[in-house]
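Narrative summary of target 7.
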Amino acid sequence: MKIDLVPLLDEVRQHLHHELIPYWRERGDDPECGGFLTCFDRHGRPTGDTNKNLLAHCRLIYSFSSLHRSGMDPDGSFLARARSGAEWVLEHFANRELGGWFWIVERDGTPVDRKKIIYGYSFVIYGFSELALASGDQRWLEVAEGAFDLLESKAADTEHGGWWEFFEEDWRRCRPGAYGGDRKSFDVHMHLMEALTNLYAASGRPRHREKALEVIELITRKMLHPGSGTGIAQFSGDFTPQRAIIFKNVWGSDREAEDLAGRPLDNTSYGHNVEFGWLLGLSAEVLGLETGRFDPTIKKLYEHCLEFGIDRERGGVYCEGPRRGPARERNKEFWQQAETLIAMLDGCRRFGEDKYAEAYRIVHRFVFDRMINHEVGEWLPLLDQDNRVIWDYMGHQWKINYHTVRSMIECERRLASLTGR
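Modeled conformation, tokenized:
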């Protein structure tokens, strides 16, 4: 390989072990009410926004558990915090009357948004199965399995396949349009794939493997564009592609559900594409599928990002663009960078081509020189196409450490393998 990856590995290790992990050792826990606080300003100080959502809590359970399982928690403190957060979710997010979990609660656990959002349920499965793997405690696996059973009984579309994603508290589907009741999405089904894969890793049960294989088949056959191989964001129930809209119950202060027409139908997300690529490869390994079975699918996703998504002049990865042609949404958001770093290293290992190492280097330099707030330890959320900061907070209800910590753990592991260090 022409590019020397050793200095980049050194930077990843420095950031992960001396900036990012220390940042999260000091933040996240709510000392007054329990559970987690997620909203921090550019200096890492609490903003005063204390509402709590199911997604962020379960993502923190996942991250803290994965740090322990990766050998980066020598005193067990992250595992203890994951357990404590899991207890809080069971106590305050659980809807004991109608089943399932609330979407958003106040700091003390009083429900604010009682809807059932399957995006969050995917991370109940993912977070609690990771906690089970990290701790060996069967109790947490039972929670993940219960979430899976609920998903199958309440949200599965038995006519067309996949799952509906937005429900009222009593499990009636939400209204259509911005309320999401008539839509299925690539993003949520991708996260269900990773969640079900992790559930199978924890349980070893054939039923969980079968459902993971089923969602892989569904995504690869119905949710990728047949020509370009890139992801289609949203669909009607029968998997007819729809213009992608922002849903009212998913995003917080950083997104508004105002554009009812939606994005152009040929739009695709570079971040979701490459994230799905490396997660698909990982799922294939965990599920015991033939090595290389999905390489053509993965390569199409990576090649599209290489051609259109990466800013080779200023660094980083753009947000979105058409299936063929230059990017339309040229801002650079933290999570796309995190997932592209992993994917380009996966491309190095999987395809053995220097262009993936070069792409990794470009995105790495952007992240380490522009996006990481080294003084504080976490990543800035959003820069524009000229690398000027748009948002400067370190965390809010939708930005915690799922992407950043996971990316650095995966990059350290992959760079160490590629360099023999």
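Residues 29 and 36 are 5 Å apart (CA to CA).
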